[in-house]
Predict the 3D structure of the following.
Amino acid sequence: MIAPGTLLLLVLAFGFAVALGAHYAGACMGMADAARATSRRRLLLLLAPLTFLGAALAGERVERTIGHDLLLHGHLPIPLAASIIGVAFLLTSLFTALRIPVSVSQIVIFATVGTGLAAGASIEWSTVGIFVLIWALTPIASGLIAYLLLRTLHRRWPAQALRAMRSPPALMAMIGLGALTSFLMGANDVSNATGALLLGGVSTATAAALVGGLGLGLGAFFFGGRLIDRMAHEVVDLDPPMAASAQLAQSAVLFGVILAGFYTSLNQALMGALLGVGYGRHRSRIRWSVVRHIVIEWGTGPITAAGLAAATTLLLRWAGLG
């Protein structure tokens, strides 16, 4: 029989995976939606199973990084592992409801750090430092790649590129890029939702990836529309070449980070790419008030996560549960 604490941890992990799938749908299929490649329902029908496959087939390595490498001893009592997921679940759901695309990976890692510090655990600061470096470089790298891609298209084939990107083969390619990003999202982000199952010692990396992948797919399909609107239509005034360049740049950066066994923020990768194509076409296409609001929340999210997780941990320990 499953112990109540273990059951709570599993339920929270699955619920968080659903919330995370909803939050990252825009980062996966927003550019295909912006290019009007096909209906949104079809995009979500494609996104859901590919997200699950990415988690099941390629998420195990990143699961181990989050589940074992952030804390020197690799495990926490189940109530403390549940507090990490609970805080991340709460904040991710809040930001999704507010239509603010944040870095869920930052929220999860800083919640883990806050819990570890409050519990007196030893933090693997070198791993945290690597993640901070990756987060800083991600939007810069994707923005630069997207800018160069768009400027190459614009300079060499300005009119032809615009016409070509509106052709059926080009729109199919956009859907393919969204599909690739969906697979990468499953591999990249499943550990956000279920890495705490490894910290709590209640799951293997493979099982955690399967549970998380199912939740990601369901969340993306049923609740992913809110942030698709935000990323596709409210940050930058996009045309098809801009959308294609942004999606390709995001996918390239994500692929490189995942191959290294780490993970980064899909939203930050796409935001950097969107700014890159905005500058590449003209700065007036960028809606700066929206960008400023999102960037501010990138800073407040991790700090809030660490504070809430530390406070929850201290309360649990005071109650004798940690």
